[in-house]
Design goal:
Layout lengths: L4 E4 L5 H13 L3 E6 L2 H13 L5 E4 L5 H14 L3 E6 L13 H23 L3 E10 L12 H7 L6 H17 L3 H4 L3 H20 L5 E5 L17 H4 L1 H9 L8 E2 L5 E2 L7
Parallel strand pairs: 1-2, 1-4, 2-3, 4-5, 5-6, 6-7
Antiparallel strand pairs: 7-8
Helix pairs in contact: 1-10, 3-4, 4-6, 4-8, 6-8
Length: 273
């Protein structure tokens, strides 16, 4: 019987690195640290080797579909499938970024929503029945951050489809280009991307229920990483606690949920936690 397999995207630093570390300590199977940059990824693996841990490495750039397909073919040929998938790779522009709102909107959504979606579309067919998927969202992914009530209602519609959600994400990009986004969407492309990811999680769960696959979104906490300009209060290992809970320990009944850093299930479309 082939070994069980866990995969973490964007695993060379920050929360992703700590998730790989935690999986190496507890997951009964092979753990893949993946990253866009091969040199940085292999350096991260060697750091974990020094701790007595043995992650495996494969290059994976979620923004390049061919890269995801190469990885899928490798895993399928070697193992037959994936048991745990942690979609962690993401970007965030700094507050003082020089790029225009339009550029920030297009690039943030391209990576944090559309590339994650493509990665899932390529890898979901090789998820084993009973697999677990963890989509790393954010406190920014809470629906209350979207200003427009009509948009909030569309995003939480239990009949919303992935094409319809993607259309909404593209609508935000178009609105940002025209400078008419703030009254409806607010002023953060990162917020829109993570709200989109959380909405996507709920649709994915509906689509995968019959395969007993658990898909959840998680806010890992405000963590001391490059993305937060090291302003976060939590260590990366503390930030990995809730993602690891969903990957390894959460009851099978936890499906399609938005989970907070303290492992609480949060009402995504309720008041701000």
């Amino acid at each position: 019987m082939a070994s069980k397999v866990a995969v973490v995207t964007g695993g060379n630093k920050g929360i992703g690195f700590a998730i790989v570390r935690g999986l190496c300590k507890r997951f009964e199977g092979d753990v893949y640290l993946t990253s866009r940059d091969e040199e940085r990824g292999k350096k991260a693996v060697s750091e974990l080797n020094k701790e007595g841990l043995s992650p495996l490495y494969h290059q994976l750039d979620i923004t390049v579909k061919e890269s995801v397909e190469v990885f899928r073919d490798y895993i399928k040929q070697k193992y037959g499938g994936i048991d745990v998938l942690v979609n962690n790779a993401a970007i965030a522009f700094k507050v003082n970024a020089k790029e225009s709102v339009a550029v920030q909107a297009a690039e943030t959504l391209r990576v944090n929503y559309f590339s994650v979606l493509t990665t899932c579309e390529v890898l979901f067919p090789i998820l084993r029945n009973g697999a677990r998927v963890v989509n790393v969202s954010s406190s920014a992914g809470h629906l209350s951050h979207i200003k427009s009530e009509s948009l909030r209602n569309r995003l939480k519609d239990p009949k919303l489809t992935i094409p319809e959600l993607s259309e909404l994400m593209n609508q935000y990009i178009d609105d940002a280009k025209q400078g008419i986004h703030s009254d409806k969407w607010g002023n953060s492309s990162y917020v829109v991307s993570k709200v989109g990811l959380t909405a996507l999680t709920k649709i994915q769960q509906r689509e995968l229920n019959d395969r007993d696959i658990k898909v959840n979104a998680v806010h890992p906490g405000y963590v001391d990483t490059d993305m937060t300009s090291h302003k976060g209060r939590l260590s990366i290992d503390e930030g990995a606690v809730a993602p690891l809970f969903l990957a390894l320990d959460a009851p099978d009944s936890v499906r399609g949920q938005y989970v907070w850093c303290d492992k609480r299930i949060v009402d995504w479309d309720g008041p701000k936690p």
